[in-house]
Amino acid sequence: MANRLVVLEGDDAHFVDALQRAWDDGDAVLPLDPRLPAPARAAVLAAAHPDEPIEPGDALVVATSGTSGAPKAAVLTHDAVIASALATTRRLQVDPDADRWLACLPLAHVGGLSVVTRAMHTGTPLSVHAAFDAPAVERAARAGCTLTSLVPIALQRIDPSLFRTILVGGQAPPSARPANVVATYGMTETGSGVVYDGIPLDGVEVRIGPDGEIHLRAPMLLRAYRDGGDPMLPGGWYPTGDLGEMSAGRLRVHGRRGDMIVTGGEKVWPTTVERALSEHPGVGEIAVLGRTDPDWGQRVVAVVVPRHASSPPTLDDLRDWAKQTLPAHAAPTVLTIVPSLPRTASGKVRRSDLTD
Q1: How many other β-carbons are positioned within 10 Å of the β-carbon of residue 17?
Q2: In this predicted model, what pLDDT tens digit does every residue of 195-240 receive, in sequence order?
């Protein structure tokens, strides 16, 4: 009898136990976020084809969180999951006798799930929270958790000094961050972050394609998508869809190819502007995007959640701040104040919602 794809829901220790049982039975697991509305749930299941058997060696089927479009379902093998766990453990010098992981991001997304799988494969103690709650995260650190993975918005809500190391991914990290906070680059298809503070993990190769696209080759890459699609280029390189550059052995990520803003013939990367403006004392959260303009091609738009609702920053404030470190053409020309930014369950800003 062919092994199955088991659908598991939840974000707690019961999920971890069920994952281990499924693997012991030779099955693969599709983590499904129980908070998904019915249409989104149906889209994930349609992409994952849960009624079809798995291939030998398949461990996980993880839906791409994405910020727009239909989800894909990436297949990660046991070999890939183990490679990811070991590479991270080596880079962070994790000691199972002294360290403890805290998983407090959704387990249906690779940022949270990879905390669980690396703890399982290295024998490192693990605590699992059903959801991110800042006071609970700080209590866990005081109780012995030394390592965790967060998104930038969650990082802002805790005292990071309570942990030995914090991995931050999912979107551009703040430019100013404590020394114990590691900026990671990766995606569902890479099984977790594969570049830490610009330096690839052991076994991870990075090249920049002719058009500036980041290509990755590594043992932790997906096998395929569940619909049979193989995204790999010749030679086993995965095209990320992100643009970037390598300098002195470090990767600098500019952003998604489709996110680049061209204003008056000048290229502007939203993540670069976001990093600069996030340091403004009046900015709580920020997203930068392009808006079509008949004269300039696009305008640079800053969508801001004020740090203090009673005193939001002005457009002139943000332009002056941006021009201290960025070219004038990168300074926003449109400011929209909002109470919150639309985000995916894994914490990414839904730029498509803001564009709409």
Answers
A1: 10
A2: 999 999 999 999 999 999 999 999 999 999 999 999 999 999 999 9
Amino acid in the structure at residue 314:
T
> Residue 303 belongs to a domain with what CATH number?
3.30.300.30
Nearest-angstrom CA–CA distance, 120 and 124: 7
* Structural domain of 48: 5-253
CA dist 63 and 72 (Å) reads 6
The residue to which tokens 């703890």 are assigned: 119
Judge if 49 and 186 occupy the same domain.
Answer: yes
Identity of the residue numbered 211: D
**205 and 295 in one domain?**
no
Please state, as a whole number, how many other Cβ atoms lie within 10 Å of the Cβ of residue 1.
Answer: 5
pLDDT tens digit sequence for 65-116: 654 467 899 999 999 999 999 999 999 999 999 999 999 999 999 999 999 9
**H or E element: which one contains 177?**
none
Q: Which of 151, 111, 117, 110 is nearest to 134 (CA)?
A: 151
Spans in the chain with pLDDT lower than 70: 1-2, 65-69, 172, 174-175, 346, 356
Tokens 């992100």 correspond to what residue? 242
The total number of residues shown for the chain amounts to 356
Give the pLDDT score at 319. 95
Residue with tokens 């998104």, as numbered in its chain: 151
- The percent of residues in the chain predicted with pLDDT above 90, rounded, is 76
User: Would you state the pLDDT for residue 119?
Assistant: 98
Rounded Cα gap, residues 221 and 232, in angstroms: 10
In the chain, the N- to C-terminal Cα span, in Å, equals 48
Q: Count CB atoms within 10 A of the CB of residue 36.
A: 17
Residue 343 CA from chain centroid, whole number: 12
Q: 163 is written with which tokens?
A: 């942990």
Phi, psi for residue 136 in degrees, rounded to 5 = -70, -35
Q: Tell me, what CATH number does 46's domain have?
A: 3.40.50.12780
